[in-house]
Amino acid sequence: MPARYALYYAPPQDSTFWQKASQWIGRDSATGEDLAMPEAIDVPPSRLWAMTQSPRRYGFHATLKAPMWLTPGHDQDDLFTALQRFCGRTAPVPVGRLVPRMLGGFLALMPETQGEALADFAANCVADFDALRAPMTAAERERRLQSDLTPRQTALLDQYGYPYVMDEFRMHMTLSDQLPMAEHAAMLAAAEGWFGPVLADPVTIDQISVFAEAEPGAPFARIADFPLQGPA
Fold first, then answer.
1. C-alpha to C-alpha distance for 207 and 226, rounded to whole angstroms
2. How many degrees, rounded to 5, is the angle at CA 74 between CA 92 and CA 72?
3. CA distance 81 to 127
4. 3-class SS at 133?
5. Are the C-beta atoms of 18 and 60 separated by less than 8 Å?
6. What pLDDT, on the 0 to 100 scale, is given for residue 147?
7. How far apart are CA 98 and CA 111, in angstroms?
């Protein structure tokens, strides 16, 4: 079966941010290496490992274009060519500072304030690459509908294959699976302590990273980064 591709924002691979986030989820998706969980936080490593299964599989990221199969007749080279064109005309996007927050019961790093420039950039990523996205199957649509979507989210799902886009987009970098309410405060405190030094500086999206799932259920691998090079 062909690979499935996702377009993400991910910090530079040589940054402290990427290294600390990869250690938090227990895997570096650029190298494929499993990592020891942090011990300098008030969460047992075994518990952190258990609650980061989904982030570990998908890799540390913020979604710009959700995982997709390519339309028949298109391949990875076509995707990369489209990315080069898009990134060549698109300027880096200021995000501001990220902070740990709970979102729908899971822990994530999110912008203090999501600005219009970020929302417009994310919308352009969704729309510009949609011609390369193979239509979702009936089974995929049914699985998505089990998430109790609003009518607007269902309409976006049918148009773009993913419900949390356009006016429903909220930038987030997932740090956990669904957590019981009793753990929310402790996990927020742990994330603030672990990520505090790197979250002091504002974030700029200056590249789009391609992650690929080689076969269904496989962990996503970070396979390429495309810098944003358009005029400010």
1. 5
2. 130
3. 16
4. strand
5. yes
6. 86
7. 4
Residues of the chain with pLDDT under 70: 1
Distance CA 50, CA 54 (A): 10
Amino acid at residue number 163:
P
How many whole angstroms separate alpha carbon 8 and alpha carbon 179? 24
3-state secondary structure of 53: helix
- Closest Cα partner for 91 from 48, 50, 120, 62? 120
Backbone CA torsion sign across 206, 34, 108, 101: negative
Contact between 20 and 79 (Cβ < 8 Å) = no
Cα–Cα distance for residue pair 128/227, rounded to 1 Å: 17
Supply the pLDDT for residue 2: 85
User: Alpha-carbon torsion 163, 165, 171, 173, what sign?
Assistant: positive
Amino acid 228: pLDDT: 98
CA-wise closest residue to 43 among 98, 97, 100, 99: 100
Angle between helices 16-25 and 184-199 (to 10 degrees): 160
Q: Which residues of 114-136 are buried (b: 16+ CB within 10 A; e: fewer)?
A: beeebbebbbebbebbbebbeeb
What is the model's pLDDT at position 40? 78
- d(CA 83, CA 95) in angstroms, rounded, equals 21
pTM, two decimal places: 0.95
The pLDDT, as a whole number, for residue 107 is 98
**C-alpha gyration radius of the chain:** 17
